[in-house]
Amino acid sequence: MKSDSHIPVLLNEAIDGLNIKPSGTYVDGTLGRAGHSSEILKRLNSKGKLICIDQDQEAIDYSEVKLGRISQNYQIVKNNFRNIDVVLDEVGIKKVDGFLFDLGVSSPQFDEDYRGFSYNKDAKLDMRMDNENSLTAEKIVNTYSLNDLTKIFREYGEEKFSYQIAKNIVKARSTKPIETTYELVEIIKESKPKSELLKHGHPAKQVFQALRIEVNDELNALEEALEKTTKFLNVNGRIVVITFHSLEDRIVKKFFKKMSVIEGNRINDYLNPSDIKTPDFKEINKKVIIASEEEIANNRRSKSAKLRILEKVK
Questions:
Q1: Contact at 8 Å (CB) between 42 and 19?
Q2: What is the share, in percent, of the chain residues with pLDDT greater than 70?
């Protein structure tokens, strides 16, 4: 079943974080259902420009209509945000005043049972954000080695029963292919002790996260995109990133620190203060921004969201 219901997470905080100039150029690297893009577009005048990137054609089709009702100062490009440099070159943009990345899976992708993202719905094991991608969760589960499955579950899912789950997957697929989300959920449940199953939260959450990250190469894509954005950013321009799990947040936190701190830059008695090198970027929020209790009550998916902002200062 298709769904278009989506509540953008940390909407006001993200828009405020971009510090939008009406005539500026902005890039939403994760268009989704245009929740954030709509608010950016509303704040742009006739000289402003919004570039939207997404690899999900269904999201693009929906957002094209939604954004078109606001203004025509936007362009949507079907691509992975890791190719943000290629996209900007194609549309002829040299400099940008703000980048926004709202990472993870959108609500419609979770809610559409045929996409295979959810452990709460029985569907084919898919998990592709781009339906043209040849790699699916089903292919991973049925072809990856015991060692590779264990590694993925441990590193991408931080699952402490990774080996046992991988071992039982390999055993089960020797009889018949594992094709659906519920089949995989049952194997995961059988791989964990009863004490674990009684804990709060779904027992398959971490494995499903790991598979989704592997299918879409999410962490590598994020690292590539962040590196590329800084080359296009205008002075006073900002990068705003919303993450949903510790692996993503760790990458963003590490990158922002690298860009905003010059290691070993201590005061030297033999140098004038003006000669001491200062970083080209600064972190706007030293403390990560999280959703309010009110937002969490209205949208449970905002509970794990974290927002960080980096600004180019020279």
A1: no
A2: 91
Who contacts 92 (Cβ-Cβ below 8 Å, separation ≥6)?
none
Report the candidate in 300, 305, 310 with the shortest Cα–Cα distance to residue 258: 310
Closest CA to 187 of 199, 196, 195, 178: 178
Domain boundaries, the chain: 11-102+218-312, 113-216
Task: Enumerate residues 6+ apart whose C-beta is below 8 A from 144.
Answer: 152
Residue of 218, 299, 156 lying closest to 29 (CA atoms): 218
- Residue 49: per-residue pLDDT: 98
As a whole number of angstroms, the distance between CA 20 and CA 132 comes to: 34
Helix (H) or strand (E) holding 51: strand 49-54
Asked if the 11-102+218-312 domain carries CATH number 3.40.50.150, the reply is yes
pLDDT digits (tens, 9 = 90+) for 243-276: 999 999 999 999 999 999 987 655 555 556 666 6
244 or 6, which is more confident: 244
The first and second tokens of residue 80, run together, are 């992975």
C-alpha–C-alpha distance, residues 183 and 15, integer Å: 41
Q: What is the pLDDT of residues 198-233, one digit of tens each?
A: 999 999 999 999 999 999 999 999 999 999 999 999
179 in helix, strand or coil? coil
Sign of the CA dihedral running 258, 261, 266, 269: positive
- Give kind and range of the element (H or E) at residue 139: helix 137-143
Q: Domain 113-216 falls in which CATH fold?
A: DNA polymerase; domain 1 (1.10.150)
**Hunting for tokens 């929020």 — which residue is that?**
285
